[in-house]
Design brief:
Layout (H helix, E strand, L loop, with lengths): L8 E2 L14 E2 L6 H63 L2 H11 L8 H10 L1
Antiparallel strand pairs: 1-2
Length: 127
Amino acid sequence: MLDTEKKPEVMETDMSVSGLPLFSSVDTEEKSGSEKKKSAWAVIMALIVITLLLMLMIQAGVTLNESTIQLSALKSEIRTLEKQNREYRSLLDKKNDNVVFEQYATEELGMLKGQDNEESEQKDKIE
């Protein structure tokens, strides 16, 4: 009778404190062809999944970087627009100032300063 199966080799090694061997057997039997194919496919699929995950992480990092750049550009634009807004408000306040109107009327147009309405009404009553 021929024995075609290989039996695992048993190696006696250092004994642990409990009395059981640390390494009791070494499996020298090779896997069958279909098991090798299955494990190779599993490794390939795992590598594909890991690669896809890494690609997604890189894409997310790029998108985050682009968004950060856009955000800083928009913040800079907001600061510029706020500065312009303050300048325009200052100009508008200066233009709407009655002292400026009065000065323009008297100096440029040669007009005389008129009396207030109350003073003119009192004069009209007296006369």
